Protein backbone atom coordinates (compact mmCIF):
# COMPACT_ATOMS: atom_id res chain seq x y z
CA UNK A 1 0.00 0.00 0.00
CA UNK A 2 1.21 3.50 -0.79
CA UNK A 3 2.48 5.65 2.03
CA UNK A 4 -0.04 8.34 1.09
CA UNK A 5 -3.24 8.07 3.12
CA UNK A 6 -5.15 11.18 2.07
CA UNK A 7 -4.98 13.04 -1.20
CA UNK A 8 -6.98 16.05 -2.37
CA UNK A 9 -6.58 16.22 -6.11
CA UNK A 10 -7.78 19.46 -7.72
CA UNK A 11 -10.84 19.66 -5.47
CA UNK A 12 -13.47 22.32 -6.13
CA UNK A 13 -16.27 22.36 -3.55
CA UNK A 14 -18.64 24.81 -1.93
CA UNK A 15 -22.14 25.59 -0.85
CA UNK A 16 -24.82 25.96 -3.53
CA UNK A 17 -23.22 27.99 -6.30
CA UNK A 18 -20.58 29.54 -4.10
CA UNK A 19 -17.27 27.68 -4.44
CA UNK A 20 -15.06 27.71 -1.34
CA UNK A 21 -12.30 25.22 -2.18
CA UNK A 22 -10.57 26.20 -5.39
CA UNK A 23 -8.48 23.51 -7.05
CA UNK A 24 -7.17 22.30 -3.72
CA UNK A 25 -4.47 19.64 -3.96
CA UNK A 26 -2.34 18.17 -1.20
CA UNK A 27 -1.28 14.80 0.18
CA UNK A 28 -0.89 13.48 3.70
CA UNK A 29 1.28 10.50 4.63
CA UNK A 30 -0.07 7.65 6.70
CA UNK A 31 0.68 8.21 10.40
CA UNK A 32 1.34 11.92 9.96
CA UNK A 33 -0.30 14.97 11.49
CA UNK A 34 -1.08 17.80 9.08
CA UNK A 35 -2.10 21.16 10.50
CA UNK A 36 -4.47 23.30 8.44
CA UNK A 37 -3.82 27.03 8.82
CA UNK A 38 -5.28 30.14 7.25
CA UNK A 39 -7.53 33.10 8.05
CA UNK A 40 -11.18 32.79 9.04
CA UNK A 41 -13.29 31.81 6.09
CA UNK A 42 -10.35 30.37 4.13
CA UNK A 43 -12.07 27.00 3.80
CA UNK A 44 -10.31 24.92 6.45
CA UNK A 45 -13.50 23.49 7.97
CA UNK A 46 -14.93 23.07 4.48
CA UNK A 47 -11.93 20.91 3.53
CA UNK A 48 -12.56 18.62 6.51
CA UNK A 49 -16.28 18.48 5.72
CA UNK A 50 -15.57 17.58 2.10
CA UNK A 51 -13.42 14.68 3.28
CA UNK A 52 -16.14 13.54 5.64
CA UNK A 53 -18.77 13.49 2.90
CA UNK A 54 -20.74 16.49 4.16
CA UNK A 55 -20.11 18.29 0.88
CA UNK A 56 -19.80 16.75 -2.55
CA UNK A 57 -16.93 18.12 -4.65
CA UNK A 58 -17.92 19.69 -7.99
CA UNK A 59 -14.61 18.72 -9.43
CA UNK A 60 -11.54 16.70 -8.51
CA UNK A 61 -10.97 13.66 -6.36
CA UNK A 62 -10.52 12.99 -2.68
CA UNK A 63 -8.53 9.80 -2.25
CA UNK A 64 -8.37 7.65 0.85
CA UNK A 65 -5.68 4.98 0.47
CA UNK A 66 -5.86 5.55 -3.27
CA UNK A 67 -9.64 5.12 -3.48
CA UNK A 68 -11.80 8.05 -4.56
CA UNK A 69 -14.23 8.79 -1.71
CA UNK A 70 -15.61 12.06 -3.08
CA UNK A 71 -19.37 11.79 -2.66
CA UNK A 72 -19.24 8.64 -0.49
CA UNK A 73 -21.95 8.32 2.16
CA UNK A 74 -21.34 8.91 5.84
CA UNK A 75 -21.82 5.22 6.55
CA UNK A 76 -19.21 4.27 3.96
CA UNK A 77 -16.76 6.82 5.38
CA UNK A 78 -17.20 5.59 8.95
CA UNK A 79 -16.72 2.02 7.73
CA UNK A 80 -13.59 3.15 5.88
CA UNK A 81 -12.21 4.42 9.19
CA UNK A 82 -12.69 8.17 8.93
CA UNK A 83 -13.64 9.92 12.18
CA UNK A 84 -14.65 13.56 12.44
CA UNK A 85 -14.53 15.68 15.60
CA UNK A 86 -16.21 18.94 14.57
CA UNK A 87 -15.64 22.34 16.10
CA UNK A 88 -17.62 23.23 19.23
CA UNK A 89 -19.65 20.96 21.47
CA UNK A 90 -21.11 17.87 19.85
CA UNK A 91 -22.43 15.75 22.70
CA UNK A 92 -25.92 14.78 23.80
CA UNK A 93 -25.80 16.93 26.94
CA UNK A 94 -28.65 15.28 28.83
CA UNK A 95 -27.38 11.77 28.17
CA UNK A 96 -24.67 10.24 30.34
CA UNK A 97 -21.03 9.91 29.37
CA UNK A 98 -21.57 6.20 28.88
CA UNK A 99 -24.61 6.72 26.67
CA UNK A 100 -22.71 9.19 24.52
CA UNK A 101 -20.01 6.56 24.02
CA UNK A 102 -22.64 3.95 23.17
CA UNK A 103 -24.04 6.24 20.47
CA UNK A 104 -20.53 6.61 19.02
CA UNK A 105 -20.51 2.87 18.42
CA UNK A 106 -23.81 2.79 16.57
CA UNK A 107 -22.22 1.45 13.39
CA UNK A 108 -20.27 -1.21 15.35
CA UNK A 109 -23.11 -2.92 17.16
CA UNK A 110 -23.54 -2.92 20.93
CA UNK A 111 -21.40 -5.98 21.67
CA UNK A 112 -18.27 -4.53 20.08
CA UNK A 113 -19.06 -1.09 21.49
CA UNK A 114 -19.30 -2.40 25.04
CA UNK A 115 -16.06 -4.33 24.59
CA UNK A 116 -14.23 -1.24 23.42
CA UNK A 117 -15.56 1.36 25.87
CA UNK A 118 -13.20 0.29 28.70
CA UNK A 119 -10.15 0.74 26.40
CA UNK A 120 -11.29 4.25 25.57
CA UNK A 121 -11.87 5.13 29.22
CA UNK A 122 -8.30 4.12 30.07
CA UNK A 123 -7.14 6.99 27.84
CA UNK A 124 -9.31 9.53 29.66
CA UNK A 125 -9.29 8.91 33.43
CA UNK A 126 -11.17 12.15 34.21
CA UNK A 127 -13.99 11.12 31.89
CA UNK A 128 -14.02 7.62 33.37
CA UNK A 129 -14.72 9.09 36.82
CA UNK A 130 -17.83 10.79 35.46
CA UNK A 131 -19.22 7.81 33.55
CA UNK A 132 -22.80 8.14 34.77
CA UNK A 133 -23.00 11.94 34.87
CA UNK A 134 -24.83 13.94 32.23
CA UNK A 135 -22.36 14.91 29.50
CA UNK A 136 -23.34 18.58 29.88
CA UNK A 137 -22.12 18.56 33.49
CA UNK A 138 -18.52 17.84 32.43
CA UNK A 139 -15.96 20.62 32.04
CA UNK A 140 -15.23 21.83 28.52
CA UNK A 141 -11.98 19.85 28.47
CA UNK A 142 -13.66 16.66 29.65
CA UNK A 143 -16.39 17.08 27.03
CA UNK A 144 -13.82 17.43 24.25
CA UNK A 145 -11.99 14.35 25.56
CA UNK A 146 -15.29 12.47 25.52
CA UNK A 147 -15.89 13.53 21.91
CA UNK A 148 -12.44 12.33 20.94
CA UNK A 149 -12.99 9.08 22.85
CA UNK A 150 -16.29 8.58 21.04
CA UNK A 151 -14.47 9.00 17.71
CA UNK A 152 -11.73 6.55 18.78
CA UNK A 153 -14.30 3.83 19.44
CA UNK A 154 -14.30 3.25 15.70
CA UNK A 155 -10.52 2.64 15.77
CA UNK A 156 -10.25 5.16 12.94
CA UNK A 157 -7.35 5.32 10.53
CA UNK A 158 -8.05 8.98 9.86
CA UNK A 159 -9.04 11.62 12.41
CA UNK A 160 -10.35 14.97 11.23
CA UNK A 161 -10.39 17.39 14.13
CA UNK A 162 -11.54 20.99 13.91
CA UNK A 163 -10.23 23.52 16.45
CA UNK A 164 -10.13 21.16 19.44
CA UNK A 165 -8.51 23.69 21.80
CA UNK A 166 -11.37 26.21 21.89
CA UNK A 167 -12.46 26.73 25.48
CA UNK A 168 -9.91 24.29 26.92
CA UNK A 169 -7.20 25.04 29.48
CA UNK A 170 -3.62 24.92 28.17
CA UNK A 171 -2.91 21.73 30.09
CA UNK A 172 -5.87 19.91 28.58
CA UNK A 173 -4.88 21.16 25.13
CA UNK A 174 -1.42 19.66 25.62
CA UNK A 175 -3.00 16.35 26.65
CA UNK A 176 -5.16 16.32 23.52
CA UNK A 177 -2.21 17.14 21.27
CA UNK A 178 -0.03 14.49 22.92
CA UNK A 179 -2.75 11.89 22.45
CA UNK A 180 -3.03 12.71 18.73
CA UNK A 181 0.76 12.39 18.39
CA UNK A 182 0.67 9.01 20.14
CA UNK A 183 -2.14 7.73 17.90
CA UNK A 184 -0.15 8.78 14.84
CA UNK A 185 3.10 7.23 16.05
CA UNK A 186 1.79 4.05 17.63
CA UNK A 187 -1.23 3.23 15.49
CA UNK A 188 -0.39 4.93 12.22
CA UNK A 189 -3.47 7.16 12.46
CA UNK A 190 -3.42 10.01 9.95
CA UNK A 191 -4.58 13.30 11.45
CA UNK A 192 -5.83 16.46 9.76
CA UNK A 193 -6.25 19.19 12.34
CA UNK A 194 -7.48 22.76 12.14
CA UNK A 195 -6.09 24.71 15.07
CA UNK A 196 -5.54 28.40 15.86
CA UNK A 197 -3.13 27.59 18.65
CA UNK A 198 -0.46 27.52 15.97
CA UNK A 199 2.79 27.21 17.89
CA UNK A 200 1.70 24.40 20.20
CA UNK A 201 0.01 22.58 17.34
CA UNK A 202 3.07 22.85 15.08
CA UNK A 203 5.17 21.20 17.80
CA UNK A 204 3.24 17.96 17.47
CA UNK A 205 2.54 18.20 13.71
CA UNK A 206 4.59 16.85 10.83
CA UNK A 207 3.35 19.22 8.12
CA UNK A 208 1.40 22.42 7.90
CA UNK A 209 -0.65 23.62 5.01
CA UNK A 210 -2.20 27.06 4.73
CA UNK A 211 -5.29 27.99 2.76
CA UNK A 212 -6.29 31.38 1.52
CA UNK A 213 -9.65 31.73 -0.25
CA UNK A 214 -9.72 27.97 -0.61
CA UNK A 215 -6.36 27.80 -2.33
CA UNK A 216 -3.21 26.17 -1.04
CA UNK A 217 -0.64 28.87 -0.30
CA UNK A 218 1.81 26.88 1.79
CA UNK A 219 2.82 23.28 2.42
CA UNK A 220 5.85 22.84 4.65
CA UNK A 221 7.32 20.64 7.35
CA UNK A 222 6.01 21.88 10.72
CA UNK A 223 9.54 22.17 12.13
CA UNK A 224 10.50 24.63 9.41
CA UNK A 225 7.57 26.87 10.22
CA UNK A 226 8.26 26.76 13.93
CA UNK A 227 11.71 28.13 13.21
CA UNK A 228 10.25 30.95 11.11
CA UNK A 229 10.36 34.30 12.95
CA UNK A 230 7.28 35.48 11.01
CA UNK A 231 5.20 32.55 12.17
CA UNK A 232 2.39 34.75 13.54
CA UNK A 233 1.66 36.12 10.10
CA UNK A 234 1.27 32.67 8.57
CA UNK A 235 -1.84 32.18 10.55
CA UNK A 236 -3.33 35.27 8.99
CA UNK A 237 -2.29 34.24 5.50
CA UNK A 238 -1.29 37.05 3.17
CA UNK A 239 1.80 37.73 1.12
CA UNK A 240 4.18 36.13 3.56
CA UNK A 241 2.37 32.81 3.40
CA UNK A 242 2.17 33.02 -0.39
CA UNK A 243 5.92 33.58 -0.56
CA UNK A 244 6.47 30.48 1.50
CA UNK A 245 4.77 28.02 -0.84
CA UNK A 246 6.97 25.00 -1.08
CA UNK A 247 6.60 22.62 -4.01
CA UNK A 248 5.90 18.94 -3.40
CA UNK A 249 6.91 18.55 0.23
CA UNK A 250 5.32 15.11 0.43
N1 LIG B 1 -23.14 25.76 5.42
C1 LIG B 1 -22.67 26.81 4.74
N2 LIG B 1 -23.40 27.42 3.77
C2 LIG B 1 -22.92 28.48 3.08
N3 LIG B 1 -21.68 29.00 3.26
C3 LIG B 1 -20.90 28.44 4.19
C4 LIG B 1 -21.34 27.32 4.98
N4 LIG B 1 -20.34 26.98 5.83
C5 LIG B 1 -19.32 27.83 5.59
N5 LIG B 1 -19.64 28.70 4.61
C6 LIG B 1 -18.79 29.75 4.06
O1 LIG B 1 -17.64 29.14 3.48
C7 LIG B 1 -16.48 29.92 3.72
C8 LIG B 1 -15.40 29.06 4.33
O2 LIG B 1 -15.85 28.63 5.59
P1 LIG B 1 -15.01 27.64 6.51
O3 LIG B 1 -14.58 26.47 5.72
O4 LIG B 1 -15.86 27.39 7.70
O5 LIG B 1 -13.74 28.52 6.86
P2 LIG B 1 -12.61 28.34 7.98
O6 LIG B 1 -12.85 27.05 8.67
O7 LIG B 1 -11.31 28.39 7.25
O8 LIG B 1 -12.76 29.53 8.89
C9 LIG B 1 -16.90 31.09 4.57
O9 LIG B 1 -17.08 32.20 3.71
C10 LIG B 1 -18.22 30.64 5.15
O10 LIG B 1 -19.05 31.74 5.39
MG1 LIG C 1 -13.43 26.61 10.59
How would you sum up this structure, described in words?
By secondary structure, the protein is an alpha/beta fold. The chain has a domain at 82-155. Helices cover 38% and strands 26% of the residues. The chain has eleven helices and ten strands. The protein has helices spanning 44-51, 74-79, 97-104, 110-123, 125-129, 140-152, 170-187, 198-204, 222-226, 231-236, 239-243, and strands spanning 4-15, 18-29, 33-37, 59-64, 67-68, 82-85, 158-162, 190-194, 207-212, 215-221. The strands form two sheets. The protein has a six-stranded mixed beta sheet, with helices on both faces. Strand 1 (4-15) and strand 2 form a beta hairpin. Helix 3 (97-104) crosses helix 4 (110-123) and helix 3 (97-104) runs parallel beside helix 6. The protein is globular and about 45 Å long. Residues 44-45, 87, 162, 194 line the site of magnesium ion.
The total of helices stands at: 11
Q: Could you state the order of secondary-structure elements as H and E?
A: EEEHEEHEHHHHEHEHEEHHH
Strand content: 25-35%
Q: What is the overall pLDDT average?
A: 91
Low-confidence stretches: 238-250
Distance between the termini: 16 Å
By DSSP, the count of extended strands is 10
Distinct small molecules: adenosine-5'-diphosphate, magnesium ion
Overall radius of gyration: 18 Å
Amino acid sequence: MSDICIEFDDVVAGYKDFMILNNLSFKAHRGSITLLLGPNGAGKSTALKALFGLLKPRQGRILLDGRNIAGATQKELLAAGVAFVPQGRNLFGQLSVYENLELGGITLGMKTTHERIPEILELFPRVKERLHSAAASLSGGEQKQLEIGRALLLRPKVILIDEPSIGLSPLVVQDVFRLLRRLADEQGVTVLMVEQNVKSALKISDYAIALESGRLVLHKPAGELLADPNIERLFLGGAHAAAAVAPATV
